[in-house]
Design a protein that fits this description.
Length: 285
């Protein structure tokens, strides 16, 4: 395993950790201030949310790189299916727009949260078939733009509305069904920490299909399954064991802190949050 106590340059910030993914949350720091604060602390990369990029993708990408950082990702595509997905053509238009933004940022990947069970089907299987068809249709466009599509399986609690893709097993199956090299997987501790088959499925995936590794923790007494994630070390996930499993199959990319925390971390001074991210990364991850 990499020694993060000696070198934390693999540390990435997902700006959701500062509340930048939801209106009305966080301290409202500018993108430039976030970039400078991460550079000062030795972060290696930043993953942004589309809502904070707007029409400035090229400029923000250049600003990030000029500070010595990488754009590790962009969150996210629209939901593709299910109750939260836009109408079909609007979804496809927005999907293409998200790919264009990722390309302009020169982001390492675009995160895909696929959306929940398709209304009326009562079927995860049928819903995933529709997801596969949509992504297979868009993958050539992403490849032409140089954008990796990172499928992110979410915790099963989100199966109804946010993601009919709930296990790493199904994510690997989806990659195999689609069969396009630009389609990969993002592994998020929050969503997979409980899965006893994770090690075997990571081996099935292989390093070439792993586009990201996201860090946080699962609080034993969580009060909100969406907006009450724990900072690393505050919960029950075996963080070192999970990283060992993903690194054993060859993943050596950035490790991205992504903490949704409306009533705790989003209410703190971002300087404190970033300092603690570094300290926890070096000691418990």
């Amino acid at each position: 395993m990499r020694d993060f106590a000696r070198d934390h340059s693999a540390l990435a910030l997902n700006t959701a950790t500062l509340g930048h993914n939801v209106d009305g949350h966080g301290a409202g720091w500018s993108t430039e201030r976030v970039i400078d604060a991460c550079a000062e602390r030795g972060f290696g990369a930043i993953t942004y949310w589309r809502r904070e990029i707007g029409a400035r993708a090229v400029a923000i990408g250049e600003r990030t790189r000029s500070a010595g950082l990488v754009v590790s990702g962009l969150c996210r595509s629209p939901f593709l299916v299910g109750p939260l997905a836009p109408p079909r053509q609007a979804m496809l238009d927005d999907f293409h727009a998200s790919i264009d933004m990722a390309a302009d940022l020169q982001a390492a990947c675009l995160t895909i949260c696929v959306g929940g069970v398709v209304e009326g089907t009562h079927s995860m299987v049928e819903s995933l078939k529709q997801v596969a068809e949509i992504i297979a249709g868009v993958a050539p466009y992403a490849a032409m733009a140089g954008v990796k599509l990172a499928l992110e399986p979410l915790h099963p609690v989100y199966g109804g509305n946010r993601s009919c893709l709930v296990t790493l097993r199904d994510a690997v199956d989806l990659c195999e069904t689609i069969g396009h090299p630009t389609v990969a997987i993002a592994v998020d501790v929050y969503h997979v920490w409980w899965d006893l088959t994770l090690g075997a499925e990571l081996k099935r995936a292989g390093a070439s299909r792993l586009a990201g590794y996201h860090l946080c923790d699962w609080l034993a007494d969580t009060s909100d399954v969406l907006l009450d994630r724990g900072m690393m070390g505050d919960g029950v996930a075996d963080l070192k064991g999970l990283r060992r499993a993903i690194e054993e199959v060859g993943y050596n990319g950035h490790c991205e802190v992504e903490v949704f925390s409306a009533n705790n971390w989003w209410k703190r001074d971002p300087n404190e949050v970033l300092d603690i991210c570094v300290e926890r990364f070096r000691t418990v991850c």
